[in-house]
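Entry 14. Two folds queued back to back today. First construct below, sequence then C-alpha cells.
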Amino acid sequence: MKQMKKFTALLLAAVLTFGAATMIAAPKAEAATASSTASKVISIAKSYQGKVQYEYGVRNESKLIFDCSSFTQFVYKKAGIKLPWGANMQTKYGTKITKISNLKPGDLVHFSVSTPGKIGHVGIYIGNGKFIHNLSPKYDVVISDMSSGNWKNRFIQGTRVIK
C-alpha cells in the first residue's frame, strides 16, 4: 500500500512537472510559428514584385492582376491563411491594432485614401515602419514607408491575422 502511494505521488509529480513545462514552452512555440509564418508571408509578397499588375476591383490569379486587397488575399492564401477580398472586410478577420508601434511583421495595415477615416487600402507590414502593397497601375507591388509621404497621416488600423 505504501509503495502504491509513493508511486502515485511520483506519477502525479511527473505529470504536474511535465504539464507545467509544456505550458511554459507553448507560448514560445506559438511565437516561433507566428514569426516564421510572418516571414513566409513577407517573402511571398516580395517575390511578386515586378510580376504583379494592379487593377482596381480585379482578382485574377492566373494573370497575376490584383487590386490591393486581392493581392493580400493571394499572398496570405499562399501561406495557408484564408482572408476575404476587400480592404475593409479584411479588418474583420483578426485582432485590431490601433497603434503603429504595436504592429508586428506580417500584420495587415489599413489606410484611408480618398475619404478620411474610411479604409480604402491595405498592405502587409514588413517591420521598421515599412509595408509592402499593390499600389497602383503605375507602381504595382512596392515597399513604402508609413511615416512619410502620402501614408504619414492615413493609417487607420492594423489587423493581426497570424496567430
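Second construct, same run, same settings:
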Amino acid sequence: MFPGIIGKKIGMTQLFLENGEAIAVTAIEAGPSVVTQVKSQAKDGYNAIQLGFGKAKRLTSPQKGHLQGIDKVRYLHEFRNEDISSTKRGEKVDISSLNSGDLVNVTGFSKGRGFAGVVKRYHFAGGPKTHGQSDRHRAPGSIGATTSPGRVLKGKHMAGHMGNRKTTVHNLEVIQADSNRSLLLLKGAGPGANGSLVIIRKVVRSASTNL
C-alpha cells in the first residue's frame, strides 16, 4: 500500500444512502499518480517515494531530465515511506487500495479570504452600536498594554491575511472509491477551494485505538 496519493478537489455535493439519509460528500479526482523517483537511505539519506500528478503543458530542461521516460506531470509530491523495496519508477498509483468505510486524512490549502478585519478573522464582538459609535462597530479597539510590558505581545489578534494556509482534515470516511474514474467521495468537507490540489493519506489504525 502506498503512503498517499495526489488529487484535485472537484467540489461538494450530496449523496443519498440506501436508508434514505442524505449526506454531504467531497468529490476528489484522486490520481492516477506515477512514481517519478524512489529515494533510498543509502543514496539520499532517507526512504521516500515521489509521485507525479496531472498533465503539464511544458517542462523546463531540468524537469525533462528528471521525468525522462515518464509522462509529463504537473505536480510532484514526496511521501516518506520505509518500505520501498517493491516500488519501481514509472509505476502507476490509484485508489484501488481504498474501500468504503476507510478513513483518510486530506491535506490542502484553505480558501484564501484576502485581508480581513478582526470581526471576520477572529470573531470579535465589535464595539457598541450606541453612545456615539458611528464608525467603530467592527474596530478592534485598544491594543495598549499600559507600562507593563509596554509593548504589543507577539501573536496579538489583529487584522491581516486570512486563509490560504496549509491545513489537514483528519478521519474523513470514504463513501465511494471508483478507481476506474479516479473518483473519491469522502463524507464531510475537505480542505481547499474547488480545483485545488490535495494530498490524501490513508489512516493506519493501530491496535490501541477504538476507531
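Quick look at the second one. Residues 206-211 have pLDDT under 50 and may be disordered. The first helix runs from residue 41 to 44.
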